Amino acid sequence: MAKSKYNNRNKLLTAPNLMMSIVLFLFTYTVLSQEKIEAIGKYDIWNLPDLQVYPGTYKPNWESLKKYEVPDWFREAKLGIWSHWNPQSVPEAGGWYARWMYIEGDRRHKHCIENYGHPSEFGYKDICAMWTCDQWDPDAFLKMAIDAGGKYFVALANHHDNYDSWNSTYQPWNSMNLGPKKDIIAIWKTTTKKYGLPFGVSVHASPARTWGQFMPHYFGSDKEGKYKDVSYDAATVTIEDGKGTAWEGLDPKDLYGFPHDKELDANQSPFANQFMWRVDDLLKYNPELLYFDESVGVNGWVDLGVKMGFGHLAPQIAANYYNKSMAMNHGKQIAVLNMKGVGGKANSLYTIEEAEVVANALVKDSEKKIEGQIEAYPFQTDDAIGPWFINKQRLNYKDAKWVIHTLINNVSKNGNLLLAIPQRAQGNVDPKAVEICKNIGEWMRVNGEGIYGSRPFEVFKSKVGNYYFTRKGGSVYVFCLEWPKSKSITIPELKKGGATIGNILEIKLLGSNGKINFEQNDEGLNVQFPKNAPNKIAAVFRIKQDKTWINDDDPGVRYFGWVHKVNRGQKEFNNDVHESNEKGERCSYSFEGTEVDIITNTSPNMGKLVVLIDEQLYDIIDLGKQEHCGVQQRVFSSKKLPFGKHKIEVINTTNKLVVIDALIIK
């Protein structure tokens, strides 16, 4: 990656800097410890060598990355809790303070002048020094997260302000050097693991966001008034000005960057390269989840014309993260990568086909947006019960009912909810927020069985009312977001003879011991509702039925390279299948029983499947030469197996279409 004409220390690479680059290159596959840094001397973070992808299974291209499969822990968890907190919390005046304090006329610009001074004299560098975190109790926060029913925890590692909340090797403006003088991410990680939760980090200081939305304003000035044409501090302050201050020894250019130049190509940007090293450095904490507040696309909605969008950087980030995570976790794939802008209006990939490949290579994230239909692959919606960054003037919290309804909506469509709990400037949490988390947890402890570990039903919502569906372990769960005024309702999606539902055997209202009367017929399922709802948030019915097949997307079903198809309306079991068009792609499932059947689609143009059980060849099935064509065809039934644990593998042996719809275990 060619270096920029901007260099805060040297105009050209001197011989010592060139030698330093060579030395740093030798550490590409390792994390530089503080001792090593001191041993090789203080180096120029704007002239680092190109980061090489950690060697392993994945290559930095979408074709290689599409073989990725979302790990079980994420699919089972459904609800994550997020600490969205950094120095921008200090003024308690809302989000993006580091940007808005430099924009004349904005309320945060006025707030800065009234409380701290004009940005030409007092800048964001000084706010970073005020973030002492002296009321932060990570144990209490994690206990609150668990009490709310959270099954994973995510901490903000950096924001668009460009300050790192960890012992950052490649950004001196970090929480060890300035502010709390603590490794915030390390403490979050240790505390999270103490309580047995997967740990994630969110990264927001991506090149396009930081250069495009924050840095340009740092170098501006007021257009009128007392400070007209007086440059803000980023344009004038130097490392020498820090003598005697809290940030003594730190170069402001490392925080503020360079004057913004939209004509600068990504391949000329030292900031893009430094960002890659900072992301790699963050992996030393071995996070199970790595979140980016950035679009995958090249020319998308957040690239902002600066030519540094994740279309350039995402494949390298993904391959490096997946490979390094597997190396740190004994070869297991436990990593989840969140990025935005995959599919829909925000999509900035070149083709729909490319978007589908990318959707299979990571976990799509959307901010405050729930998908409109069941998604083929797991996704995540992130939201907050209050503002992203605390705002004491506009502190309106959403209640537990809103959270639960948002969660149900997401889970019914194959999604998770990542929920941010606002923290005060120095780390404490308002009693109101704690109470909301407690109320969420109370509901989850009664009704969570329909949430955790579930999968979408064939439709996410009934057409007759505000009733949502999930399925798990042969049961269907119906979530009533509004208690009906009538004594009974008929749910047409649960009628007799449906594609997914067999004969309904029992209905239980979670949290209640009362008997539920029902009748299933060709029109639907008629349920006699009790007089009163068991709670005011959402009531949940568990419906047991006898068509307890293992769906193609059920927990434990593994795929290498297959594509998930949903919402097809072709009367396939649960309205979805997995397809393969490439020789060698395989599906596997470990089970306990004595027999296993394969349910699939058949037609004359389809290919062949090889079936292995316990690594022994059992059959070769030609889906193009079956007696009957259509959906839900039973094409394989094993012989009687010894009762116990077994593994079935199904392999595409041609480059023709093959399908897996369901398995039947006996």
Can I get a quick summary?
The protein has 666 residues and is of the alpha/beta class. It is globular and about 85 Å long.
Describe the structure.
The protein is of the alpha/beta class and 666 residues long. Helix content is 24%, strand content 22%. The chain has 17 helices and 27 strands. The protein has an eight-stranded parallel barrel. A five-stranded antiparallel β-sheet has the order 17-20-25-22-23, with no helix packed on it. A four-stranded antiparallel β-sheet has the order 9-10-15-12, covered by helices on one side. Helix 9 links the parallel strand 2 and strand 3.
Helix-strand layout with pairing:
Elements: H1 15-25, H2 34-40, H3 62-65, H4 72-77, E1 79-83, H5 97-100, H6 107-115, H7 124-129, H8 138-147, E2 152-158, H9 184-194, E3 199-203, H10 207-218, H11 233-236, H12 252-256, H13 270-282, E4 289-295, H14 310-328, E5 336-340, H15 352-359, E6 363-367, E7 379-384, H16 400-411, E8 415-420, H17 431-447, E9 467-472, E10 475-480, E11 488-491, E12 504-509, E13 518-520, E14 525-528, E15 539-545, E16 550-551, E17 558-560, E18 563-566, E19 576-580, E20 586-593, E21 596-602, E22 608-613, E23 616-622, E24 630-637, E25 644-652, E26 658-660, E27 662-665
Parallel strand pairs: 1-2, 1-8, 2-3, 3-4, 4-5, 5-6, 6-7, 7-8
Antiparallel strand pairs: 9-10, 10-15, 11-14, 12-15, 13-14, 16-27, 17-20, 18-19, 19-26, 20-25, 21-24, 21-27, 22-23, 22-25
Helix pairs in contact: 8-17, 13-14, 16-17
Q: In order across it, which strands form the biggest sheet?
A: 1-2-3-4-5-6-7-8
Shape: globular
Our measurement of the CA-to-CA distance between the termini, rounded to an integer number of angstroms, reads 58 Å
Structural class: alpha/beta
Low-pLDDT regions: 1-42, 298-307, 344-350
According to DSSP, the number of beta strands is 27
Q: What composes the largest sheet?
A: 8 strands, parallel, barrel
The whole-angstrom Rg is 27 Å
Mean pLDDT over the residues: 88
